[in-house]
Write a structure and sequence with these properties.
Layout (H helix, E strand, L loop, with lengths): L1 E4 L6 H6 L4 E2 L13 H9 L7 E2 L16 H17 L4 E4 L2 H4 L7 H22 L2 E4 L13 H11 L4 E6 H6 L5 H5 L4 E6 L14 H10 L5 E4 L6 H18 L2
Parallel strand pairs: 1-2, 1-8, 3-4, 4-5, 5-6, 6-7, 7-8
């Protein structure tokens, strides 16, 4: 099992010193619309840790639901963004992007769902050419008004029916909406990436989230992918090491 942290590439050294296996930066940090990629990729190429996963996939200014979706612009963005992720060693892209996917007031939810299907099929096609997989991130109902549970994420993945579109489980979002952890078991075959934090998004081990049950269900489902911390840090350098040690211990103890 590999453990990482969602961090800017500039903090990769801190993650490395704390014993992590990888960092998970944002797609936005690759500036997909900036033509000067050589300067942008330089810190990724020299970082002490790999970047196999990226999040913050689509900016809010490129909506993928609602009446103002510009599919040509979406396709152009996908080509640039996914290509850059692959160029710096990325293997997976997390599709949370609440700002881009939130359904505008008054717009039909079923139509928006099918727009997400269309978007993910387009993304999946570009991902195939770049050796990348897209993982759907269900968000809590404060952060998104569509796809707010792991079960709904699996439904979207099934409807998309693309070999490069899978699912993410995020303990924080599940707990914030009181989602049953049984969904980890039910959706196990689709889960290909995991995010964690602790109570109200503090560092793992500093709150009261049910890591034991969460990890046991991942083990039961045969999960062997990566796990990334996505939380608030008061002092990254001081907290990262203990957080990583807590996750590794809990993972081993729940086998």
């Amino acid at each position: 099992m590999q453990f990482g942290i969602c961090l800017p590439i500039a903090d990769a050294g801190i993650a490395h010193a704390a014993g992590f296996d990888f960092v998970e930066p944002t797609v936005r940090s690759l500036s997909p619309l900036d033509p000067d990629f050589d300067a942008i990729r330089a810190p990724f190429d020299s970082a002490p840790l790999p970047t196999p996963v990226f999040n913050v996939f689509v900016p809010s200014e490129v909506p993928v639901t609602g009446p103002n979706v510009d599919w040509e612009r979406v396709e152009s963005y996908l080509e640039a963004a996914i290509g850059r992720v692959a160029a710096v060693g990325g293997e997976k892209i997390v599709f949370g992007s609440g700002g881009a996917r939130n359904v505008p007031d008054g717009f039909d939810k079923e139509e928006a769902f099918m727009q997400l299907v269309r978007f993910l099929r387009l993304a999946g096609n570009v991902a195939v050419r770049n050796g990348v997989t897209i993982v759907i991130e269900p968000l809590n109902s404060r952060d998104s008004n569509i796809i707010t549970s792991v079960a709904e994420g699996m439904e979207l993945a099934r409807e998309t029916a693309h070999l490069r579109v899978r699912l993410l489980a995020d303990l924080y979002h599940m707990m914030e909406d009181d989602e049953t952890l049984e969904n980890i078991t039910t959706c196990a075959a689709w889960i290909e990436h995991v995010h964690v934090a602790d109570t109200h998004r503090v560092a793992p081990g500093e709150g009261s989230y049910p890591y034991e049950e969460f990890f046991r269900r991942l083990h039961k489902g045969g999960y062997s992918g990566r796990i990334s911390i996505e939380c608030r840090w008061d002092d990254l350098a001081a907290q990262a090491g203990p957080a990583g040690e807590y996750l590794r211990r809990m993972w081993d103890e729940t086998k």
